[in-house]
Amino acid sequence: MSDIKTYPVPQQYLEHTLINNAQYESMYQASIDDPENFWAEQARAKIDWEKPWDSVMNVDYKKAHIRWFEGAELNVCYNCVDRHLASKADQTAIIWEGDDPKNDLSITYRELHQKVSRFANLLKSRNVKKGDRVCIYMPMIPEVVYAMLACARIGAIHSVVFGGFSPESLKSRILDSDCQVVITADEGLRGGKTVPLKKNADKALEGCPNVHSVIVVKYTQADIAWQESRDVDYYASMEAMSDDCPCEIMSAEDPLFILYTSGSTGQPKGVLHTSGGYLLYAALTHQYVFDYHDGDVYWCTADAGWITGHSYIVYGPLANGATTLVFEGVPTYPDAGRFWDVVDKHQVNIFYTAPTAIRALMGQGNEFVNRASRSSLRLLGTVGEPINPEAWEWYHQVVGETRCPIVDTWWQTETGGILLTPLPGATQLKPGSATRPFFGIEPALLDSDGKTVEGAGSGALVMARSWPGQMRTVYGDHDRFISTYFSQYPGYYFTGDGARRDEDGYYWITGRMDDVLNVSGHRLGTAEIESALVLHESVAEAAVVGFPHDIKGQGVYAYVTLMSGVDPSDALKQELIKLVNQEIGPIAKPEMIQWSPGLPKTRSGKIMRRILRKIASNELDNLGDTSTLADPSVVEQLIKHRLNQ
Ligand code: PRX
Question: What sequence ranges are listed for the domain Acetyl-coenzyme A synthetase N-terminal (predicted)?
């Protein structure tokens, strides 16, 4: 791959960085040679423990038994808030930038401590105890951070559900983890539009009889329905709460949160993360990957409803005593210059976003970027999907004016934190590559026989050993945890992604190997979308695949077979789109719906998705073997009627 450009570490990083190349090499080696010692040292340096551990790690991938720092005790909220009060009480913890550029706030660590303590007492007043599950369905306002930390403070397990999810999705997540308390707002604001969160929650809760309390932040003061016995007015109740709420002492392996994510089969799974290892891993990666120095202003544009928001807006940065920016809006409102205006306004030094946003902004022209100075920026990051070299170059040259390294960070909800990434002071960059493993991470590539690929080559991306931030189980379904991640390649954690390793040992993610789509960095299971489509009485069968999309990375392409006697129509298409919207949320809406009188199936009735994917992607000269199909003529029909893109 000699035509791949490389970018050396910039001079300023050679002079002023936390980890240079020599340090990376030696620390990485130490983390692999003696992981117990490496992680024990990091854990002592980064986290305040109430009680030290009996053992650093206790991992058996065959049983999917993963434990870190057993015997140790700590409180995550204490580590993110209280311990900073001695030296940083007046430092800004959170900069909040509203959807409307006129609205912003600055919250110090002292104020954060007060809000979180009161909120924790409010939860207690509704009888929330250690181990209880609390659902958070919120807009990107500071209260979402208070809510997460308040749960952590009293040992409740939060389950944040992205505010863009539908009532149906919210309901199934509340039920799966039996949340009895929900925290929401009257409405959210995004791009100048309102999101009816309370209304959605009310609808979801019609099917959730165990929910006894709904704490509502009356944010926009919209008219909302109110159930006196169940609904709690957040602002009014906070007034009466005490500022004093001692932190519950938790075991390192006590659950911190559940976060639902899509897999290739069935309902989204509740990824469970625990306290000690997760916090250590989030904090360590945040510091080193973003080269975070005290006083830096750090901005991750994710939503708190995703793992990126958990690890790199809330837990990692706050554990490090950082200033973290919480953004309510979208990249294109009021116009496509918003990100860069906010960078100037708050003098952001480190900026972390998704390739889909970069691609969308790239298409709007450079004047939106150039009207802002961006002189405060020192580092750029991306996450969520592969970044195409063209978008990488634009980000690097136009946004970062070639002085800011780009950290292309590869990780997953399941991994808790970043596993593959450059370190800005240590790693030469190659556009489109997530480069090298973080400390303690041992990636491997396996071929289709499960054999290790040595040197340069491609295969299934697996991890040969555990790291502290790894998920511990699928909530309520450990068998699913084993079968999803540890069965296909025994002895390894299987990521679901394919990757290539080049001659320099750099990793290039090639995308999911399973039936999971990545639409604008959002993870969607094809099975979930299919289940939504077949709910319609006119639909006999549906098969969903992804197709390449210039901005979203992938779009949703649905093949739909109608019941006999039903005529296809545009109106029916709209009904189906609405149905998916209603069942999952707008992010899952099919971009293309192709009426398909038949689907390619094997003689045993299995849909050949490989063929459907190729047709949707317009890779028609490479369909592979179709002779095993029950009716090969179906393929010609599908090709003939495929939708133009
Ligand atoms: O396919 C990979 C892709 O996103 C998947 C994980 O999605 P999720 O759990 O929603 O977490 C996203 C944010 C951490 C991965 O299996 N992915 C994530 N980051 C990258 C990526 N693909 C390529 N390059 C990345 N940097």
Answer: 24-80
